[in-house]
TrEMBL record:
It comes from Rhodoferax lacus. The chain crosses the membrane at residues 12-37. Keywords: Membrane, Transmembrane, Transmembrane helix. It comes from the Bacteria. This is Prepilin-type N-terminal cleavage/methylation domain-containing protein.
Length: 238
């Protein structure tokens, strides 16, 4: 009589199980890929925004130094402002050291005059200033850059144009004017209006608006440009 032992039946993985496993793996892979792409886009956007913020700070820094330092005279006893800054070029009055053009169409310009001092590392647009020389700096936005054309008036050399900061779409400036002689700002005027009213000697502040290309432009609800506004005192008239 034959004894019958128990038999273990072994069965391989079927096609259905393989397809299910592949589908689950594909879904997980797609999820991980999408998460990676989202993280990379977020990191790229953050870098772009950080770069724009740095550009904003640096551009406004140059203009702040220019406006607040316009008319600087290291030795007012030896030479008055009228002697140091005579009528020349766009400056039509003796002692005038600030001039703007434009009517708020993102194409305004700003011109300043100053005298370099021995310790004037933060003066001007370049690092090669000669102490005691007077300079004219003209700022505008061209080809996406805040540019500065710097002229050494004392040496009577040709202007050197520098591209300072990129990513700009335009610049608007209005000037705080003391039109009554009371010592404080009574109204804000464009450069063209100040020139028409002959109020450059009455300017107390310059309110600068820089328009930057928006790194997020094209996304829903995002404008083409973002603006940075700062009011800068014109120390020569305060």
């Amino acid at each position: 009589m034959k004894s019958q032992g128990s038999h273990l039946v072994q069965r391989g993985i079927g096609l259905v199980e393989v397809m299910i496993a592949l589908t689950i793996g594909l879904v997980l892979l797609l999820g991980v890929s999408q998460a990676f792409l989202t993280m990379r886009e977020t990191a790229t956007t953050a870098q772009q925004l950080s770069a724009v913020q740095n550009q904003q700070r640096m551009a406004m820094y140059f203009l702040h130094v220019a406006v607040s330092g316009a008319g600087f005279n290291p030795d007012p006893i030896a030479k008055s402002g009228e002697v140091l800054y005579p009528v020349s070029g766009v400056f039509t009055a003796p002692g005038q050291t600030l001039l703007g053009t434009g009517a708020g169409a993102a194409a305004d310009t700003l011109s300043v005059r100053f005298t370099a001092s021995a310790g004037g590392a933060q003066q001007g647009c370049s690092a090669s200033l000669v102490a005691g020389h007077t300079y004219t700096n003209r700022f505008n936005v061209a080809n996406g850059f805040l540019t500065c054309s710097e002229t050494d008036n004392t040496a009577a050399t040709a202007a050197t144009t520098l591209n300072l900061i990129g990513g700009l779409a335009g610049m608007n400036i209005v000037y705080g004017v003391d039109s009554t002689g009371g010592g404080s700002v009574t109204q804000y005027l464009t450069g063209a209006q100040v020139t028409t009213a002959n109020f450059w000697g009455n300017v107390k502040t310059a309110q600068v608006t820089l328009l930057f290309t928006n790194a997020l432009a094209g996304q829903p609800g995002q404008p083409q440009t973002v603006s940075l506004v700062e009011t800068i005192p014109y120390m020569a008239n305060i």
